[in-house]
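Give me structure tokens for this 132-residue protein.
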Amino acid sequence: MKRQRATVIVEIDGRILLVENRGGLILLPGGGINPEESRLQAAARELTEETCLLADSLQFLFTHESATNCHNVVWATASGQPIACDDAAALHFFDRDDARLAARMSAATRQILERYCGVRKQCDCRSLSSPG
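Here you go.
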């Protein structure tokens, strides 16, 4: 059985917030869902743990199966100043022109963002394609 993960999409000033883990991989904020919490509770907790943001509202979008996880993708609005906390080494903002950042994203993050951008029609995700 794959690990259940809450994966959060939060936009700040029109750009999607991403976290960099200690290994240098770029991911959407999120993490494991504890047995006693819902996917929305886990999304709010993980967002705060990794970015110090407080979720104002949350909406479940879709699930995404990766090789190791079942991502429960949640869209959030949040308040506060984003700061890398807990296991996040740094924060980044997805900009469609930054192919260098997209090249460092996990495959699941690229796929989730492509799907999200397709649904939202708010960003141009051409830079998410694998280089080469």
